[in-house]
Design goal:
With 116 residues, the protein is mostly helical. It is built from 3 helices and no strands.
Length: 116
């Protein structure tokens, strides 16, 4: 038979507080990995969206940005290239321009002359 003194209200509340603290610690420890996973997923979605804009607006004239013979470009260089394309009739919103600049820079990252 169970001893009723084992289940006092004081012990019940101590156990409850302990469990809540333990769960809180586990959630806090897991939180950075969840945030990092969400950021990676969002970056992937942003890159897909940018690539779709690139396909729609740029790929008619440019087959690929991967030219191993050319020296890499900084983010500022890509900004200038996209602005020059505006002069040739490229119709992009500011948001689309920024997406394409980020995409081109990210694709060639590590090949640039200096950090952009």
């Amino acid at each position: 038979m169970l001893n009723r003194k084992l289940f006092t209200s004081k012990r019940f509340w101590l156990l409850t507080v302990f469990l809540i603290c333990a769960i809180s610690v586990l959630l806090v420890m897991q939180s950075p990995s969840v945030v990092a996973s969400e950021k990676a997923k969002q970056k992937s979605l942003d890159r897909l969206k940018a690539y779709k804009v690139y396909q729609e607006k740029c790929q008619g004239c440019h087959d690929s940005v991967a030219d191993p013979e050319k020296q890499g470009r900084t983010r500022d260089d890509w900004h200038l290239v996209v602005n020059v394309m505006h002069g040739y009739g490229l119709d992009l919103s500011t948001e689309e321009s920024d997406m394409i600049i980020d995409l081109l820079y990210d694709l060639r990252k590590g090949l640039e002359r200096e950090a952009g």
